[in-house]
Amino acid sequence: MTMNKSELTPRPGIPPTAEEMVLANQANWDARTPVHVASEFYGLDGSRTAEDWFAPFEWTDLGELTGRDVLHLQCHLGTETAAFAERGARTVGLDFSAAAVAEARRLAEEAGRTMEFVQADVHRAPEALGARRFDVIYTGKGALCYLPDLTAWAGIVSSLLRPGGTFYLVEFHPLLDSLGPAGGPDQQELRLRNDYLGGRGPLRSDTPCTYTDGPPVQGATTSYEWRHGLGEVISAVVGAGLTVQLVRETELLPWKRFDSMVPGENGWWRLPPSEPIVPLLYALRAVKN
């Protein structure tokens, strides 16, 4: 990105550009970082491990990682990134938030893990990483909604993979963001309340609340999210020259999104038996020919 944060002042009657919205998201995630570091949600005090963030099928799909070069795009605090290093991979995490990358480096050093963290917007990842190429690229669990153009993103992923390399995406299902409580806070029944598909532009949010526990976010509270249906994701990956090998859908989530959710396998959460079984998370594995 070529802009700086001083150029983000709203212009009455003029909608922000995609570049401006991405920079607003970057400032928002810088502001979220201290709240997340101190939260019980992330469990950085040792109450949660890196493995807690993974469904068992992810390790089956990824296979042996020892000695492989793994890149985790949009890694935030590196809580998941650490699991790749623990499994013997040469691991690099990349994120656009300077505050998050600083914390990720600190946490890795304190834990004695050998990992590298790079501060860069995912759209500038090839420039930040130079000629480096990877055997495995991993991303997801709240990453794609911050990307305005999946075609450009998928091309970047493909360019960073070695021939024969694996791209693995584990992301919240677009149906999940479409669901919401039917009425007030005491009504737990879920209904379709939001768009599943994109097409109406990004959703703007201006709130001091984040998805974790902890105090309100201070400073930059505005963020933008883009809707991406499953068809759009798969088409972007295929269009970038990658061959899709599998797509999974699961009713499990790594955190309690709705108050009505009950514990499931592996300490994760699912909707109660009174609700229909619907996909809340999906995984996609593709390889570079």
Automatic annotation (TrEMBL):
Key word Cell membrane present: no
Annotated Gene3D superfamilies: Vaccinia Virus protein VP39
A Gene Ontology BP annotation from the UniProt entry: methylation
InterPro entries listed in its UniProt record: Methyltransf_12, SAM-dependent_MTases_sf
Superkingdom, natural source: Bacteria
Coiled-coil regions listed: none
Molecular function via GO: methyltransferase activity
CDD domains according to UniProt: AdoMet_MTases
Key words of the record: Methyltransferase, Transferase
Keyword Coiled coil: no
Every Methyltransferase type domain range: 71-167
Name recorded for this polypeptide: Putative methyltransferase
Species annotation: Streptomyces lydicamycinicus
